[in-house]
Write a structure and sequence with these properties.
Blueprint: E1 2-3, E2 17-20, E3 25-28, E4 34-37, H1 45-58, H2 68-81, H3 86-103, H4 108-124, H5 135-142, H6 147-159, H7 163-170, H8 181-194, H9 197-203, H10 212-222, H11 228-238, H12 243-256, H13 261-272, H14 280-293, H15 297-309, H16 318-331, H17 336-346, H18 355-362, H19 369-381, H20 386-398, H21 403-406, H22 419-429, H23 437-444, H24 455-464, H25 470-481, H26 487-499, E5 505-506, H27 512-521, E6 524-525, H28 529-537, H29 548-553, H30 563-572, H31 579-589, E7 598-602, E8 605-609, H32 611-618, H33 623-634, E9 643-646, E10 649-652, H34 653-659, H35 666-674
Parallel strand pairs: 1-4, 5-6
Antiparallel strand pairs: 2-3, 3-4, 7-8, 8-9, 9-10
Helix pairs in contact: 1-2, 1-3, 2-3, 3-4, 6-7, 6-8, 8-9, 10-11, 10-12, 11-13, 12-14, 13-14, 14-15, 14-16, 15-17, 16-18, 18-20, 19-22, 22-24, 23-25, 24-26, 26-27, 30-31, 31-33, 32-33, 33-35
Length: 679
């Protein structure tokens, strides 16, 4: 049985009817009879239709008054049919609010009349709204099929904080069936404001035209961290966005959000699948989050590799690519580095491996040696330029390694050599032209050496991949003359140089260290070694104490000793049983004319005479030693009473001796008497 709104008494008993909103029927309060709601309004159907039509026309305004004439025509129709009808009042109220909202940017005066009219219309509505007492109004709302109109009305009543009407009207809204932009944005804004994410999920299904760019940003910043976020964002992108703008928004989101790595990953992957790519900083922030939040480093690596494989080609700048490569090298595990770089390359990006990034991995002792070597091999396989490889080698040599990298490996493996040695060998193997000799030269003379006592081992590795040239041989001589290392290290370095043919002989500047190196390296002293030793111990470059045994060990068949060094030995070497005999060997090794005058310093001034006469007046030896040396010198100076010069005055040697200018040493005064210099 049906009943109209005008008749609200039971046809059986005349009892009062009460509307049951849940069952959509009237119930007699006396006998319990039920009555269906009728579709008629006591002949007033046309006014309801006109009111609804007026509301429909308002949803098409698009934020302007361009179509207001149609709205006004429908409003006029309502007032013409029945101005007292509740639907007419509601239409008038909605129209006033709409006009006020559109005209609001023009100032308060522009909307004063509309606001006053809206207040008047709202005052005509019964308060509070209740379906039992406001049946006519409730019936009007129930006949509104358009979700756009319903949303419009909820917006109107929200302005008056009329929650009862908002809730009642809202129950009939199918958010997926909203077609007007204003209605859709109203529903979306309401969902964001109330944090009603279920409502927002539904509102996003609306086919209405919306500001996708603004909504994309709001979803990133305000939507909660859950599984729906990525799907909602994907839907927005599908509806069309400005790629540049939303890419920047996505980059900021990835860099600044507190969302979980899982959600960030889903959002980023969803965006990239639709052509929206964040910048390098955003991707690196995501990679870092994955690294921090994953249960294992391997799990993080798999996610990073997968994401790199999804990158659309040509969307990252060179700087973005470089930052991603830097992150991969610095933060991913050694076994994942080659795969991650490969994924980036397969996505169409040029991998420019910077020397500093590779070096940072090579010296990172938290990584295994095998992982670091794998990185180097991968870099070379990707076309790392030979020149850059040499730079990395040089820089790697210059870094001070950790104690762990210099110690013998404790890992269970066949190669127990220190990490730096193994890595250095791997680097050298991938140098197309071998190790640049200049790198070896610089390392040889480096002071202080970062590798300490391991320097000889590293020299050995370098020389295994170096073509030895003349400049390196000269540098090896410089090393002997001014070694920056300890005697023990120097000995082993010289041994390495000799074993690789850089040096065939060893000089004498190193003294005892050089002699030990000769024995261990299996090389002999150079022809100049003895002269160099005398110069470094007795001459002007005196830097170490003279040792007779060391000097004798430096004598070779080709030894050549300069006259000044012979004199230095005669006058400065300590007296010993071997001195006279060794002096005879020096005299034979001196290519100079030993009868020619030389100049020495005496207490009173400079004295110029042949070597024999100089020895007679200036030696500090015993008589026995002096006798042997004088006898050897006589072979080179036939005449004893030669011309000499003392303090610029020329005279015969006999006169000089007899003059008393100097006191002759006791060791040779008797000798001078025997040869008649006093008579």
């Amino acid at each position: 049985m049906a009943v109209s709104f005008a008749k609200r008494t039971c046809e059986t008993c005349g009892g009062t009817l009460k509307f049951d909103g849940q069952k959509n029927v009237f119930v007699c309060q006396y006998c319990g009879n039920t009555y269906e709601r009728t579709e008629s309004y006591d002949g007033a159907y046309s006014v309801r239709n006109a009111a609804i039509q007026a509301l429909n026309s308002m949803t098409s305004l698009g934020g302007t008054l361009d179509g207001w004439s149609l709205v006004q025509d429908n409003l006029n129709e309502c007032m013409k049919i029945d101005p007292s009808y509740i639907g007419s009042t509601i239409a008038q109220l909605a129209a006033s609010v709409q006009r006020a909202m559109i005209l609001a940017p023009n100032g308060r005066e522009a909307v004063r009349a509309d606001l006053d009219k809206a207040q008047t219309c709202f005052a005509k509505l019964p308060q509070p709204f209740d379906t039992e007492t406001c049946l006519e109004e409730a019936e009007f709302y129930s006949k509104i099929d358009s979700s756009d109109v319903r949303t419009l009305l909820t917006n109107v009543f929200s302005a008056f904080h009329d929650n009862a009407r908002v809730d009642f009207i809202n129950n009939g809204i199918d958010v997926g069936d909203i077609h007007s932009t204003e209605a859709a944005m109203t529903m979306i804004n309401r969902a964001f404001s109330a944090q009603d994410w279920d409502l927002l999920d539904k509102a996003l299904q609306s086919p209405a035209a919306i500001d996708t760019g603004a909504l994309f940003k709001r979803l990133l910043e305000q939507y909660p961290d859950n599984d729906h976020k990525a799907g909602n964002i994907a839907g927005i992108i599908t509806r069309g966005v400005d790629e540049q703008t939303v890419s920047e928004d996505l980059s900021r989101y990835l860099s600044q959000t507190s969302d979980s790595a899982r959600t960030r990953y889903a959002v980023c992957s969803s965006c990239m699948a639709r052509g929206i790519v964040p910048d390098g900083a955003g991707l690196c922030a995501l990679f870092q989050a994955l690294t921090d939040e994953s249960d294992t480093q391997s799990e993080a690596g798999e996610s990073i590799i997968a994401l790199l494989g999804e990158l659309p080609e040509g969307r990252l700048s060179d700087a973005d690519t470089a930052s991603i490569v830097g992150f991969i090298l610095a933060k991913t595990s050694g076994k994942d580095i080659p795969r991650a770089l490969g994924a980036l390359k397969e996505s169409g990006y040029f991998i420019d491996l910077r020397a500093e990034d590779i070096l940072a991995v090579l010296i990172d002792d938290s990584r295994s040696v095998d992982d670091r070597i794998a990185l180097w091999n991968t870099a070379c396989g990707m076309g790392l330029e030979p020149r850059r490889r040499q730079i990395i080698l040089s820089d790697y040599l210059g870094t001070r390694p950790s104690a762990a990298d210099l110690a013998d490996s404790q890992e269970q493996q066949q190669d127990s050599r220190p990490a730096k040695i193994r890595i250095l060998e791997a680097i050298a193997k991938n140098l197309p032209d071998g190790v640049n000799p200049l790198v070896v030269e610089n390392y040889l003379m480096k002071q202080p050496c970062p590798d300490g006592e391991r320097k000889p081992d590293i020299i050995n590795v370098l020389l295994s991949f170096t073509t030895v040239g003349e400049t390196l041989r000269r540098k090896a001589i410089d090393y002997q003359n001014s070694t920056p290392d300890t005697p023990q290290t120097t000995t082993r370095v010289l041994e390495a140089l000799a074993s690789h043919g850089v040096i065939q002989t060893i000089g004498g500047a190193l003294g005892q260290t050089g002699v030990e190196a000769m024995r261990s390296a299996g090389v002999s002293a150079s022809p100049s070694a003895l002269d160099e030793y005398l110069r470094s111990t007795l001459g002007t470059l005196n830097g170490q104490a003279f040792d007779q045994v060391t000097a004798q060990n430096l004598v070779v068949a080709q030894s050549r000793v300069s006259a000044p060094m012979v004199v230095a030995y005669l006058l400065s070497a300590p007296d010993s049983m071997m001195k006279a005999q060794f002096a005879s060997r020096l005299l034979k090794a001196c290519p100079a004319d030993l009868s020619a005058p030389i100049t020495i310093n005496l207490p009173g001034g400079q004295f110029t005479a042949p070597m024999l006469q100089c020895y007679l007046v200036a030696n500090q030896d015993s008589e026995q030693t002096a006798a042997g040396i004088v006898e050897a010198l006589k072979q080179y100076t036939a005449k004893l009473n030669v011309d000499v010069e003392y303090m610029g005055n020329s005279m015969k040697f006999r006169k000089f001796v007899r003059s008393g200018f100097v006191n002759l040493p006791a060791s040779t005064s008797g000798e001078c008497m025997q040869i008649g210099l006093f008579s």
